[in-house]
Amino acid sequence: MAVVAQAQPNIALIKYWGKRDHSLNLPAVSSLSITLQSLWTRMSIDFNDELTEDTLQVNDRGAPAMLARVSHCLDLVAGADRRRASVVSHSNFPIGAGLASSASAFAALVVAADEEVGGIRNRLELARLAGAASGSAARSLYGGFAELIAGEEQIDVRTVCEASDWPLEVIVAITADGPKPLGSGDAMIRSESTSPFYSSWLERQDDDLKVARAALLSRDFAQLAAVAEHNCLKMHSVMWSSRPPVVYWNSATLSCMETIRALQAEGRAVFFTIDAGPQVKAVCLPGDADAVAVALQQTAGVIDTMRSALGAGARLVDPA
Ligand code: 2P0
User: Which residue among 64, 94, 223, 265 is buried most deeply as judged by most CB within 10 Å?
Assistant: First the structure.
């Protein structure tokens, strides 16, 4: 019998960029994110005696390039001597395009795989296993505002504030729909070894996290906006100053940032954040979401927009 889990992508407001340990996939910095509600990945797993190797379908197509990573994650959850699995993944948003699809995919994968072996782990244990597969995936185990603390040997993750405590909205402006030119794992390696700004990025991260956490707990939107935009631009400065440079933006990315600046000048409560891709995520108070969505839809180069409230962490769902 297949087990199905659903997880939603998360968007980091204080970013993860760089690893402390590559073999364990331990992040070099702590991070803070919001888990979305309406974008999702549903992952179905069936451990099956009759299979001689794992199989993977992503959005109705074979996905051989991702299979090794998925198999390794299943080994971590179920042991290397496990039965082989049939894995079927569906996402309702573009994958591999800077929209955190690996976060929702691996969060859902560990929940479903754990259930297949008896549902033996707690949420933090599952988050650590998801994080070993994809650093940001650990945060999608948790709903609302999730904080990941990067320890020397392992991570800790928790919800700082529930989605219902501060119901922000996110408008995602899609500015390109192809896969990104360089995966974030390879890009991080490049930044760690070549960016002259990497060490100061590491040094100041806890300061940004502290400011963001305080903003969150006092529901201070202006303070959260300022520190999140600053942290995002700092991460991209590290990327841009890597050799060769890592530039995920396109001209529409910049146009979206200008749109958001104009909205801010009108007094709208909105800020931008951008991940390892050209899409722009506008985080706003619910009362400003309609205006933000319309302005981004009308921005040159925007192909589409998606809108989401904040949502829950990864969980089991009934098979469709
Ligand atoms: C984040 N990103 O905090 C940052 C911001 C992209 C930019 O986490 O190598 O796919 O699998 O641990 O989680 C994307 O990186 O990287 C990411 P791996 P992941 O959301």
Answer: 94
Distance 234 CA to ligand 1 centre (A): 15
3-state secondary structure of 85: strand
Does CATH place domain 165-309 in 3.30.70.890? yes
> DSSP H helical segments within the chain, as ranges?
64-78, 101-116, 123-133, 184-194, 198-217, 221-240, 251-265, 289-297
Give yes or no for residue 31 CB within 6 A of ligand 1: yes
Helical (H) or strand (E) element with 27: strand 26-27
SS3 61: strand
Rounded to whole angstroms, the Cα distance separating 107 from 84 reads: 19
- Topology of domain 3-164, CATH: Ribosomal Protein S5; domain 2 (3.30.230)
Residue type, 182: L
3-state secondary structure 280-312: EEEEECHHHHHHHHHHHHCCCCCCEEEEEEECC
Give the distance from CA 304 to its chain's centroid: 19
Per residue in 267-299, pLDDT tens? 999 999 999 999 999 999 999 999 999 999 999
Mean pLDDT, range 168-174, rounded to an integer:
97
- 295 token code pair: 């302005």
Centre of ligand 1 from the C-alpha of residue 267, in Å:
31
Query: What letter represents residue 136's amino acid?
Result: S
Q: Domain residue spans in the chain? A: 3-164, 165-309
> Is the pTM here over 0.85, yes or no?
yes
DSSP 83: P
Separation of 169 CA from ligand 1 center, angstroms?
Answer: 21
Query: In this structure, which residue's CA is closest to atom 9 in ligand 1?
Result: 185
